[in-house]
Each structure stands twice: as C-alpha cells, then as structure tokens.
Amino acid sequence: MSPQTAYPEKNVSRFDTLTGSAHWQGFTQMSEYEKLVIAEAEGCWLTTTSGDRVFDGVSSLWCNVHGHRHPKINAAIEEQLHRVAHITTLGMSADVTEKLAEKIVEITPGDLGHVFFSSDGSSSVEAALKMALQYWHQRQHPRPNKTQYLALSLAYHGDTTGAVSLGGIKYFHQLFAPIVFRPIRGPLPCSYRLPPGVTPETACDAYADEVEQLLKRHHETIAAVVMEPLVQGAAGMITHPHGFLSRVRKLCDDYDVLLICDEVATGFGRTGKLFACEHESVTPDILCLGKGLTGGYLPMAATVARPHLFEAFLAKTSESKQFFHGHTFGGNPLAAAAAIASIDLFEETNLIHALAAKTQQLRGEFTNLHQNQHVGDIRGRGMMVGIELVQDRDKKTPFDAAELVGARVCKRATDLGVWIRPLGDVVIVMPPLAATDEELEHVGKIVCQAIADVTEKG
Ligand SMILES: *Cc1c(COP(=O)(O)O)cnc(C)c1O
C-alpha cells in the first residue's frame, strides 16, 4: 500500500472547483451553498468579504440584542481578557462568573435562584433534563419512577441527542429516532391551524385539556413538561393561545410534575418582556437560557433552577448527590463579562420599555402583506415574527415544499440587502432588539418586496 492511499493527499485547489469547502456548515446543503462570508459587522449590519452590506435580519440566528461591536460589550470582553480568559467552574469559579450568576438570579422570574452554566442552548436543555431526573431520585420523598418527559408537538430544543429526543420536527428528528428516548407527545398549541371544532376562543382550553389528559394518564412516570413559552421558534414561530403557559404551570402543580421552560429563543427581551414567562406571571421550576444571554457575542447558556431542586442535591460529598454533569467551558469568564455588560445595557438603554413601540412598528411594516393571497399568517410575539406563506390562503394549504418558496423569498431579501433565513415556508424576521425605527422600516420594506417578487411574479 502506497502512502498516498493510506493518507490521501489534500488537494487544496479542489476547494475552488467544488461548491463545498473546508468548512462544513450546519443545516446547510453544501452542494448548493453560495458562499456568503462576513468580514466585519457594526450595529445591525454585516459586511461581506466582497464589501456588500446586509442587514442582520435574524440577529445572527436569534441571539444578537444590542447590535454588533457594541462599545460597552467589546470593552467588557477586552477588560476581562486582560485578567483571565478561561478557568474551569468545576470546583472553582471566577469572580466575573459569580457576579453573573447573581445577576441572572436577580432578573429571572420568581424564586429561580441557582444558575448552572454551559456553552449552548442544547446543553442547557440537556442539563435541565438530567437535573429533573436526578431531582426526583434524590429529593426527600424520592420518586425514581419519574423518568419521562412531556414535550409539545413540533418541539425544538436543540441538536444534541437528549434535546433531539424531545424534538418533533420531521427533518430534524425522525431520522435519529433509533438512538433517542421517546417523550410523551403533547399537542401543538397553534393559534393559526386549529383542530376541528376548536375556535380561537376555546383553543387555550382545548390544548390545555389535552395536556391534562396526558398528565392524568402518565403523571406517575413524568419527571417534567418541557416547553418553549408563548412561541415555538424553530417550529415556525408557532404562537400559543394566551393563557396556555399559565394553564400548563397550574397542571404541573396539580399533577406534581416539574415545568422546564426553554427560553433559549424567547429570553432576553425577544417577546417584549425580559422573559416570555413574565407575560403570564409564570415561574418554571427550571429555566433554560442561551442565545441572547451574552447579547449574542460569545457562546454561553444557563440552566436556572428553583431552590427545591438545588436543595435536593445538597448532602455530604461522600453521599454522591452532586449534579453529575458539567462542561469544560461552562461559566467561561469572557462570556460572563459579555453577559453582564449585555444585561446592564438592557437597563441603561431602557430597552424593554422601548420594545413595545418597536414591536408595533415592525408589525406595522407588514400590514400591506395581508392583501397578498399567499400570506397565510403573520404571527409571533414582540421582535419575533413569522410570516407563513401558503398556496391557498382560505384553505391554509401549504405550498409544495419542493418549490422552496420560503428559501427563495429569503434569497431575494438577501439580494435586496436584508439577510433572513426561513423555516420551511415561514419567513422569519428577528432583527436585533436595538434596531432603530429607520432600520425596522428598511427591513419591513425589503421583506415585503421579496415576498411580492417571489409570490406574485413566480
Ligand atoms: C436555538 C435553540 C436551542 C439550541 O440552542 P443551541 O445554542 O443552538 O444549541 C434550544 N432551544 C431553543 C428554543 C432554541 O431556539
């Protein structure tokens, strides 16, 4: 065997001829991918290596809050870099991480009081699942049979295997069914397509009743209900009826089941309040945070637990009750510094207060779309908007998926200067929360034009 066959040589020049590249990108068909490479960014704008400027219409995958290269966040990271970039938080900690944990406790709802750090949203969900299970084993009156989870239909909680187990999106999850655990599947609490006989007025009760039936049957073995509050982002901005979240909270209390709220997408102002749970005065037992935690600057996530959970893990070391989970980069000081600066900025810029007007403006930009026969629904909460394009508006019939209508709209919008990324035929618009009125107007105009160009002219 020649060395060449054992170690095929790299032929760097083939990168020029193949559409693919050294970089294999997530959720991206590399054979059709047209390279879009960003060289720098400022505020809500990205500049490509060829010098084109595009507006960051999905906040760099739903995480940017105050804009790129914000002087305060940049300075906080730089300052921290001069002290320490990374240490472990297993058995020790950094001053800046301690400070962030206290801040998160301060700003999160109710008595959420203990912050477990990881590096991405999926990991925050994994930690929540394991935390819930270990809790039922170790609490004062142990219930070791509680090992199942109830997840909503079309759920999305990340791409690691545990998070995929909860997931209910065909293309993301079905293939991996042989290697995951099965959750108990709840309803899709959708406000657009209602089950037969259900009206907008009765939708909340109908969906909550469905959850109750499942809890009634399975509560003895259910450790937790896991859900995104208010809006299921990756499912296509599926927007729940008002009151659904608080009904589920009540049901979890009634049936002695934990409530895990995944606010990786909805957290940090996205829905118009700092946390979506606040809209319905709900405190989950475990809260998952990610994306916007560092203002979208550095990878960091958090799993925040209430005291009864935390306390079930307290014992003598020799009893082996500590949480058996931990990540190398959990609580990273640079990320913690960015997160503190981002949280402080919410207060300094009075951002939450400003969001009501921004939300109204963003929605206003889409008013004319209601005349387009292919716009089925415009939904979401706050600065989290999904525009569902359909073949037939009255029957709510989707387009043939192979037509890639959503993708074509987003391509057109990008060519016109606004980078957006669809979920099927739902056009997602999630500008950074700091976007100005003029910028929101720009986004609105271009998204409307892109939709018109694709749906009216074919
Ligand atoms: C994005 C997302 C995740 C996964 O976060 P990653 O940082 O991509 O691992 C989990 N849950 C929800 C609701 C999300 O939107």
Automatic annotation (TrEMBL):
CDD domains: OAT_like. The keyword Protein biosynthesis does not apply. Transmembrane segments: none annotated. Substrate binds at Y156, K291, G326, R421. The modification N6-(pyridoxal phosphate)lysine is found at K291. Its EC number is 2.6.1.62. Pyridoxal 5'-phosphate binds at G121, S122, D262, H327, T328. The record marks F27 as: Participates in the substrate recognition with KAPA and in a stacking interaction with the adenine ring of SAM. Its cofactor is pyridoxal 5'-phosphate. Keywords: Aminotransferase, Biotin biosynthesis, Cytoplasm, Pyridoxal phosphate, S-adenosyl-L-methionine, Transferase. Signal peptide: none annotated. InterPro entries: Aminotrans_3, Aminotrans_3_PPA_site, BioA, PyrdxlP-dep_Trfase, PyrdxlP-dep_Trfase_major, PyrdxlP-dep_Trfase_small. Homodimer. Catalyzes the transfer of the alpha-amino group from S-adenosyl-L-methionine (SAM) to 7-keto-8-aminopelargonic acid (KAPA) to form 7,8-diaminopelargonic acid (DAPA). It is the only aminotransferase known to utilize SAM as an amino donor. This is Adenosylmethionine-8-amino-7-oxononanoate aminotransferase. It comes from Novipirellula aureliae.
